[in-house]
Amino acid sequence: MPDQPAIEAVGLEKSFGAVRVLDGVDLRVARGSVFSLLGPNGAGKTTTVRILSTLLPPTAGTARVAGFDIRRQRAEVRRGISVTGQDTAVDELQTGAENLRMMARLHGLRGSAARARAGALLERFDLTEAGDRRVRTYSGGMRRRLDLAASLITQPAVIFLDEPTTGLDPRSRQQVWEVVNELVRNGVTIFLTTQYLEEADRLADQIAVVDGGRIVAQGHAAQLKQQVAGHRLDLVAPDPAAYEGLVHRLGPRATQPAPERLAVSVATDGSANHVRALLDELDPEHRAVARFTVHSATLDDVFLALTGHATTQSQKETAGV
Amino acid sequence: MSETATLQRPASLAGDALAMTARSIRLSLRNIDGLITALFLPVMLMLLFVYLFGGAIETGTEYVTYVVPGVIVLCAGFGSSLTAVAVTNDMTGGIMDRFRSMDVSGAAVLGGHVVASVARNLMSTVLVILVGFLIGFRPQADAPDVLAAVSVLVLFVVAFSWVAAAVGVLARSPEAAGGFTFFIMFLPYPSSAFVPIDTMPSWIHGFAEHQPMTPVIESMRGLLLGTPVGDSAWLAIAWCAGILAVALAAASVLFRRRIT
Asked: Which residues does the UniProt record annotate as the domain ABC transporter (chain A) (predicted)?
């Protein structure tokens, strides 16, 4: 069954009481690939991961993961996967080595074999020195690495990573990315969720953009970025009249208008030619634009382009970057 | 590939339970605040009752002799109820998902906490008896009596720890779970733990005589002091077995409801 997908989901739905969290999600993830579910908080990313990893039964729909049905063959699915959730799943009061030995024992390894496996994982995740310290003393990045190590006692066929880099500093984020790339080289299928377009772009073969429990776009990173033009030109007008003129000229192309700052944005491919052409078109008399900046597209731009509405979460986050 | 094959052999329930027990005991020992509370609160309470209140209480024997079995049960109840906090910590953090994704059963995780609770409570009981001995408590028990007393106590701790585990599954935060310890702390007061029931107002006799703490305390008292136990031992066993059965069922149902 070499061409059977690692994950295949059809019509997944999930409601908590009256709240519909997933509204018909279809997914297909090829073996050995990296698939990224991209979306803001509350879009249904974590729920999707929990359903696919058998932790939560769907209200409707079916899925097969690592060759088994997530409802009827839960134990078989669980033997083929590992999950690293958003909350750190290690004990603060145990040392890194103790946590890993415990996980190894739960996988059926005994005494010296468990010890050896824990040691190898500490080594691989650059935690050997910290191995005998309690996790409470670890930095966010070290916890994340230990958490990943704990999910790799066995070599699972499919690894779920739910927002693996949220809240990490750039260096730790880089380390997590390296781990993901290494796993992929070993032929593991990776399903990861993220709020960062850049992360999905760097890691994923396929990206699905999820919003309000639905998949609103799916494709290669390049395809998605074509839809959002890849970059964004931010314009600041010198006075309200000029601002009105800019918005008028932009028409439906105007995004993220901020009258209080006299700022408005427009999609661009980021090339000098296109930016120059836009500026000339929008401001032929060279009076209406006081300043401009060019940014690479953020999750918010993807959302605006795909759904016609902004995320509330990502605006804050991109503002902080 | 052969390594992967052996690694993916499903671990047994017994093996899981053993690993979880080792984990819970280690976590108990390293939770310094909790450990100090669990070990020294019993001793403080005993000293409080013997020296501050004891002078005013007539029980027909030395008060220390009367009160030590009550303190043991009060503290075992309190110590058991701390299980709720440990369970809620697991339920609200990410680790329960990790365990479940590894197909470790909830029973193994909760059972580990219950066994750790038994170990913790035996430690605090030994400490209470030692300090009690220093201040004049002289048990009159032979070996079979001691064995019987320990058995009743362990059964009591197991039953109330499972109740606490069920509460811990239900609670949404460790603070909420902590509230349960207060309820269990107060349950021994309207019983024969600290003063004879016939000194209490008559309207409370019905509750005090027929609540589960009283037969447990009376059988501990009888067994440790070598006085007649009467039917309180059987009543204690029946109460604890009943509570245990209900708690196990409740924990299992609540666990399943909580994870969906």
From this structure: 7-237
Contact A94 B26 (CB under 8 A): yes
> Is A48 part of any domain?
yes
B259 in contact with A, Cβ within 8 Å: yes
The pLDDT tens digits of the residues spanning B206-258 come to 898 889 999 999 999 999 988 888 889 999 999 999 999 999 999 999 999 88
* Residue A269 sits in the same domain as residue A207: no
Same domain, A239 and A184: no
Do A116 and A144 share a structural domain? Answer: yes
Q: Which residue of B has its CA nearest to A150?
A: B98
Question: Which residues form the domain of A17?
Answer: 7-220
A311 lies in some domain: no
CATH number of residue A268's parent domain: 3.30.70
**When comparing pLDDT for A219 and B240, which is higher?**
B240
Same domain (yes/no): A12, A160: yes
Q: What are phi and psi of A238, to 5 degrees?
A: -75, -25
Partner A, chain B 92-121, Cβ-Cβ below 8 Å: 93-95, 97-104
Residue in A86, A103, A107 to test binding to B, most B beta-carbons within 10 Å: A107
Please report, for chain B, the start and end positions of each structural domain, with discontinuous segments joined by +.
12-258
